[in-house]
Write a structure and sequence with these properties.
Chain lengths: 411, 503, 297, 411
């Protein structure tokens, strides 16, 4: 198969972009200005931005020849926790889950940073450990001082933007560790996590998984005086210059995540290792790469980004609920694949994923503008997913050739 | 050279889930020497080396380097101790570039974990030049061929500037010219006082490059000899545990009728690159027909084309006993009487999950079908027969195939294809990585088959082999036929300059 | 808000959260039927959000992009669409919220039945069956709808408002049947073994009640147990009541037609908008006596 | 890995059974007779039997190192079509989809059978083709005669038991062909099919996917006089001897499918091919195995069994709806994996799958009897899936060993 690798590579690199252009043109033809106008464009962008984050994380996972079915339920869990942190006062199930994890994480992070630092100064190992612990504690404690009061007053935007993703990181890392240390199929592990995370989300939400609305003064809704900080509303607003709305804030998160991951994949050793593991795990291991660690980090990132998406969801839909991210994992995977990343691992780019996300986003938008019923949308979606991959793999081309050859032979 | 040994492995014992494969093996060598490690398939050579390289961690015994005790937890540890290894199987990431593969896990960093690509590529380029491997170091490995990939492996090992360099059958994928380059490099290393452990089944090479030879048999150390003094026969008997008069066997009796006829066979890659071009030749019934050529000459591609092995479009005609055959898929060609024993045993020869028995019957299940059902008893008898005939040593036919050593696996493959009772047997590097004992048996088998009127077409990179067992040798150059030599007229030189690419 | 009066026609967009539930199918049917009556001056766009909040928000946004004259929406939950409905309202498009009230109260009108009231009606009926207020006694097994949804919580709440007052009545179960017949059946199958002496099974909708009936029938208990459902759709609940499978069901009226009428009133300027106005639709207790009138309508 | 292969094999063979015993014992301890009594047992069996069929098909797919995400939506589609065939009169979307496919299929089947027969008689190729076509036509036409009248009278039990599974076979085969000829990951193709099939189900159901209830005279209800044949009710009844209910009919389908597939896998060439393809596809192809055909058949079987499950669903829950089988694919995969079949392909048994199905069934049953809330059930399910695999792979054992070793080394 390596035979037609050049051709395929070209396809996989450019294919997605062409696809995007095509669908965009179709959009213009079908809906003209309604489609083109800035308002609609920003809508599409704003909407896809949220689901894009798990897709970006998924890209890393799939590049290591893995899969993460739990991103959707991570979004759900995160949205519930986020909403409760914002709206509830005093200790709730949400706080008792998120905060301990958060502090432990802070501690560990601090520990490693400080330890590395001391190592640099070439101190003795024992020393570096001690200083590490000390440093970790200091960081953690300061954080406690900052966060703890918010338990009773309700949490601020910044806090949830840190605490909730950390929760995601943690659960993602859990996925990664089990996969790496247990040497089990990512499919199974994340399938399990998918079920458990949803259950957890429902449990934390209480009453078998009730919805937690988020109220804003500005939106003119209040629940017994309890409201979320206005700043949280900003997350779903649009940046405007001279009164012209230019870019959705969620879009920024999307863009940043893509840029960062792109940098990581292309410039950092870590990125090479991701590709190497996807390409040939055994070789990667024999080359002294710490495969287990890389995997753990990759799944952690996927979890973290999903949780972040959960936060954005809360802001966009002013609620947290246990089925917020249901089936998002499939959309994420679809986007990644349409973006030209191979499920076999080792091949693909995060930019492709971005394009894939946009393709799916515009598709939905156009079909809605066309008032196409949801069932037809489902049918089309399925066809397009398969079609896109067939195109990328240059299958149609091969079939054509085979066909022409047959005709020639007939003569 | 009796100064204090650089490396000392004492009383090494190793078992795989209870199956003992190394018994109290001692291994010792000093800086600046080439130690050849020989032994039949499954003797334990690779295992011993993997222990030294930190791949296997659960073993008994001790490793001393310059008298200092070491016990490696992983390959990284071993590297730090100055040990690098070229594995018997290729260990490369197809998607990454040549340079990235060479420095995988050891990338020169700029700052903050960023890779310094210019530097890395420069360094990579220096090494590949040293090996006359002239490809752009930024091309993905996937676009290189087995041979070239093997050279990258070597480059990777060299890039470590190790004190101890282990080469586990590095030459088996290399043509003679490339092997020469390899030897040149080894000699340079020796001058730099590096210790090289060289595993090979090719006597010639061993005598050419090695200072001393350590021989293993069935996991036991048989002895150490100086390559200067020891005799070929002695080595063989040390390895095999028995003597035999004559090594190569050729009693083929080609008949007059043409069995296989290939006319203007051509195939291209999608990018229009010729893999083979207008290949035309005839092979007679019962003939042993050799195909020589450098790496990438298109020999594998030719066999695969005839056998209908992959989807690349192919044109030209293939006739068996004067009849056109449809070579669009193995399913069809096998019915037409063709069999292909591929280059890459693990990759596309065996089903590793399956038992020895099941692997053997896979291509000929209809042989063991009774009333439309598979009959276990027939399977047992049939496979038993061939196990005996090819003297495959396997304790239980129900064992997974991966518990057999290379040589025995190769014999299982032969059995598998003989079960389809083919008219024409295509063999691609059938003796690669196989010990002399097994080789000898295979030569015997081949001539026996040819006497039964089966046509043998054998691709090999070992010219001595081809020269001594083939009735005729076809030489390929860059996908085309450059010469077809009769047994009598054929010689190393003629073949080599027919094979050498046109400047 | 600029209307497309040049054509003299009104474009009205409707976002239905899902059509998986038969109740919503009937809902859409009746709404479309009503739209037919006004077809000379109204174009009705009906979109199905496939049970996803995101889709509904997307719908409303496309409606805004298309500058429709009015929006009808039957939201998935109280909070999810608040923001976008605010956006639409501020864009000068009157929004009429159907069936489920939302947290943002700036909409033109809310039309829907009160699930709590329905729950209470069910409770009162159950109490009556078990001997009337004060001296009612027996065991009731409750099968809830998707507990994550407000209707389920309210139907549960309302029921308990009444029944918890009765010391003689014991309420069991309360598992989540997700509105689905098959899950209702599975829950009942298991429950009926632990508690053989259940008098009433109260399910948050008719299909689940019917599922429970199927389970009881397997055990030969269908005669000694009474089944109460909610919704009272002509070809479902009513049919089952008529056939003596359910003892009673409680009408959960569909707000579609009313919604459309009010929308048109607003567009014609016949009705002035008082933000946050609520219109509650009446429920009704459907039993074998009165079932026919609900089927024939 | 090969190191502890023996141990692993043992685990994978016996593990599931042990798991089943354990869970059974737990059930008895917790719920005593309520759990043990025949009625409950039959219940569980009846309930799992339906979801078991896709799992059995999934086993084949996974043995070829594939995956089929579309089984759930196949169930949905089948249930809708089945319900409509039973209840509707005259041509509907259901009939216009199912019947043509059905007739084409019959024709092709007849064609091959007759052609093979003629081949046997060593006729000329051209001849065999002609006779084949003739034969096919004859069979098809006779079938038309039998089925066609039912379009107006409503279909009988036997007819739906044939027509609907054939529809599943067809769509499954479509999966297989695209996967085989297109050389794309099964994950993608079946993901696409999943989306499309659900869409199709909704479309056929009409009104954006309404539910189609099934009425029986016996249950004393009629929808405008239209009722399904009583015989259809039998599919969800229990076989009883001397008035004692012995075995659910659905259970028979389950059992038969397991037995048949077991036979196919262990006694037929085809079965060996399945394992070979899962073990090393390239080798299989070079050994003259028609990989594409085997794959196509495997996915077809999965589709067919799923459709059959859809029919049983209709009988059990007297309705057909577009979300009948939602997320069943995940349960099926879970069952297969818990049953000890490796997602890498080549290793596993259908008996294991049967055990896996029962384990999940009993789990749910016990938790329901214990009135454990659904969210906790989700959490437990996730944990058990992962735990089961960890056990099978002997990971815990390995960890223990490593741990003990560490301790030894410390000394
Ligand atoms: N991973 C493994 N699991 C189980 N058995 C193994 C494994 N690796 C090697 N063996 C067994 O150990 C023995 C020695 O194998 P090894 O590869 O060291 O032989 P070798 O001398 O390298 O043979 P060859 O010349 O074919 O490479 C063989 O019997 C082989 O079956
Ligand atoms: N997968 C591939 N993609 C593109 N070109 C290929 C591929 N495999 C082989 N080639 C080209 O086909 C030609 C022959 O390759 P092939 O491997 O058949 O050589 P060979 O003589 O068989 O060498 P070997 O000793 O490895 O069998 C080479 O020019 C090589 O570039
Ligand atoms: Mg070896
Ligand atoms: Mg070759």
């Amino acid at each position: 198969m390596a035979a037609n690798s050049h051709w395929r590579l070209l396809n996989q690199r450019l294919g997605p972009f062409l696809g995007l252009i095509v669908i965009f043109v179709i959009g213009i033809i079908l809906n003209g200005d309604t489609f083109l106008n800035i308002y609609n464009q920003l809508n599409v962008l704003g909407r896809v931005s949220i689901i894009a984050l798990p897709a970006v994380g998924m890209t890393l996972v799939i590049l290591t020849a893995g899969i993460d079915l739990s991103v959707g339920s991570m979004v759900s869990l995160a949205s519930v926790v986020c909403a409760m942190l914002l709206m509830e006062r005093d200790w709730t199930r949400a706080t008792s889950l998120a905060l301990p994890i958060y502090f432990v994480f802070i501690f560990i992070a601090g520990y490693y940073v400080v330890r590395k630092a001391t190592r640099r100064l070439d101190a003795k190992k024992s020393w570096s450990v001690i200083t590490g612990i000390a440093g970790g504690l200091i960081v953690a404690v300061t954080m406690v001082y900052w966060t703890y009061p918010q338990v009773s007053t309700g949490f601020g935007t910044l806090s949830v933007l840190i605490i909730v993703p950390v929760l995601g990181l943690f659960l993602g890392a859990l996925n990664g560790i089990i996969i790496a240390k247990g040497k089990i199929q990512p499919f199974i592990v994340t399938l399990g996590m998918m079920s458990s995370a949803v259950g957890l989300a429902k449990f934390i939400a209480g009453k078998g998984g009730q919805i937690h609305p988020i109220y804003f003064q500005s939106v003119g809704m209040t629940a017994g005086g309890k409201v979320a900080p206005e700043s949280f509303d900003v997350l779903s607003s649009k940046i405007s210059l001279f009164g012209v709305k230019l870019f959705p804030v969620a879009g920024l998160f999307f863009l940043c995540s893509v840029i960062i991951i792109y940098f990581v994949l292309t410039r950092l050793k870590f990125g090479r290792y991701v590709y190497a593991i996807g390409g040939n795990e055994e070789t990667a291991r024999l080359s002294g790469i710490n495969v287990d660690r890389v995997k753990t980090i990759v799944y952690a990132i996927a979890g973290g980004l999903s949780a972040l998406a959960g936060v954005l969801y809360c802001s966009a839909y002013t609620q947290g609920k246990a089925d917020a991210g249901i089936t998002w994992e499939l959309d994420a995977i679809a986007a990644v694949v349409i973006g030209g990343t191979s499920l076999m691992g080792g091949k693909g780019t995060v930019v492709g994923t971005m394009v894939g996300v946009l393709i799916l986003g515009y598709l939905g938008n156009i079909l809605n503008l066309q008032e196409v019923s949801s069932e037809v949308q489902d049918i089309l979606k399925g066809v397009i997913i398969v079609g896109a991959v067939l195109l990328q793999e240059g299958i149609f081309a091969r079939w054509m050739r085979a066909f022409l050859k047959k005709i020639k032979d007939e003569e | 050279m009796m100064e204090k040994p650089l490396l000392l492995m004492k009383q090494i014992n190793k078992d795989f889930s209870g199956v003992q494969v190394l018994y109290d093996v001692d291994f010792e060598m000093s800086a600046g020497e080439v130690m050849a490690l020989m032994g039949e398939n499954g003797a334990g050579k690779s295992t011993l080396m993997k222990i030294l390289a930190g791949v296997h961690t659960d073993w008994q015994g001790s490793i001393l380097i310059e008298g200092e005790k070491h016990r490696f937890k992983n390959t990284k540890d071993a590297e730090q101790a100055g040990i690098s290894i070229i594995y018997q199987e290729l260990n490369l990431v197809q998607e990454l570039s040549v340079a990235e593969n060479i420095f995988l896990g050891r990338e020169p960093a700029a700052f903050g974990g960023m890779i310094n690509y210019p530097k890395m590529n420069r360094m990579a380029h220096e090494i590949t030049d040293e090996l006359n491997l002239n490809v752009d170091v930024r091309t993905p490995i996937a676009q290189l061929r087995v041979g070239q990939q093997q050279l990258v492996e070597i480059a990777k090992a060299l890039s470590l500037n190790a004190r101890i360099l282990i080469m586990d059958e590095p030459s088996s994928a290399l043509s003679d010219t490339e092997t020469e380059i390899l030897f040149r490099v080894i000699r340079q290393l020796i001058r730099r006082n590096v210790a090289v452990i060289y595993i090979s089944h090719r006597m010639g090479e061993v005598f050419e490059i090695a200072d001393r030879v350590t021989v293993l048999r069935d996991g036991h150390l048989v002895g150490v000899r100086s390559a200067k003094e020891v005799q070929r026969q002695e080595l063989i008997s040390m390895m095999v545990g028995r003597d035999f008069d004559q090594f190569f066997v050729k009693e083929s009796a080609p008949q007059d009728e043409v069995a296989l006829e290939v006319n203007r066979l051509t195939r291209k890659t999608i990018d229009g690159k010729y893999l083979i071009k207008d290949v035309t030749f005839r092979v007679r019934k019962g003939e042993q027909f050799g195909i020589a050529g450098l790496l990438g000459a298109g020999r594998t591609e030719l066999l695969e084309a005839i056998f209908g092995a992959d989807f690349l479009q192919t044109s030209g005609e293939v006739k068996i006993n004067g009849q056109h055959i449809d070579y669009s898929s193995p399913e069809k060609t096998i019915l037409a009487g063709l069999s292909l024993i591929t280059e890459d045993r693990k990759g596309n020869g065996l089903v590793l999950g399956m038992s020895v028995e099941q692997n053997m019957t896979l291509a000929a299940l209809r042989e063991i079908v009774r009333y439309g059902m598979l009959s276990k008893s027939r399977e047992k008898s049939v496979t038993g027969r061939f196990t005996h005939r090819l003297s495959i040593n396997v304790s239980d036919m129900k064992n997974p195939i991966e518990t057999l050593s290379g040589g025995n696996q190769q014999k299982v493959l032969l059995a598998k294809w003989l079960l389809t009772n083919p008219r024409i047997l295509l063999l691609d590097e059938p003796t690669r990585g196989i010990d002399v004992g097994a080789k000898h048996e295979i030569y015997e088998l081949l001539s026996e088959l040819s006497k039964q009127g089966i046509t043998i077409i054998i691709v090999s990179s070992e010219l001595t082999e081809l020269l001594s067992i083939c009735d005729r040798i076809m030489v390929m150059r860059e996908g085309t036929v450059s010469a077809i030599l009769e047994h009598e007229e054929a010689s190393q030189e003629k073949i080599m300059d027919a094979a050498a690419p046109l400047a | 808000c600029q209307k497309s009066t040049q054509s003299g026609r009104y474009v009205i967009g409707f976002s239905q959260v899902t059509v998986k539930e038969p109740w919503r199918v009937v809902f859409n049917e009746k709404l479309k039927a009503k739209a037919e009556e006004y077809k000379d001056k109204v174009d009705l766009i009906v979109l199905d959000a496939d049970d996803k909040t995101e889709n509904q928000v997307e719908h409303v946004k496309t409606f805004i992009a298309k500058r429709v004259d009015a929006i009808l929406i039957s939201p998935k939950e109280a909070s999810g669409c608040s923001k976008v409905i605010k956006e639409a309202t501020e864009a000068g498009i009157p929004v009429i919220v159907l069936d489920r009230d939302i947290t943002y109260k700036g909409y033109a009108v809310f039309i829907g039945a009160d699930n709590r009231v329905i729950g209470q009606a069910a409770g009162e009926y159950a109490v009556k069956l078990l001997g009337g207020p004060g001296n009612a006694s027996g065991k009731i097994y409750e099968i809830c709808g998707a507990l994550a949804s407000t209707p389920a919580q309210e139907r549960r709440q309302g029921f308990h408002d009444i029944v918890d007052r009765e010391s003689g009545i014991e309420i069991l179960g309360g598992l989540d049947g997700d509105w689905k017949l098959d899950q209702g059946k599975a829950i009942a199958q298991d429950a009926l073994q632990v508690h053989k002496d259940i008098d009433i099974i109260y399910a948050h909708n008719d299909p689940m009640a019917y599922g429970a009936y199927q389970a009881a029938r397997e055990l030969g208990l269908e005669k000694q147990i009474k089944f109460l459902g909610i919704d009272g759709l002509p070809h479902e609940g009513c049919m089952w009541v008529k056939n003596g499978i359910l003892t009673a069901t409680f009408l959960y009226p569909t707000p579609g037609e009313k919604g459309l009428e009010i929308a048109i009133e607003i567009l014609n300027g016949k009705r002035t908008i008082t933000p946050g106005e609520k219109i509650t639709l009446e429920t009704a207790t459907i039993t074998s006596e009165n079932v026919n009138e609900f089927i024939n309508e």
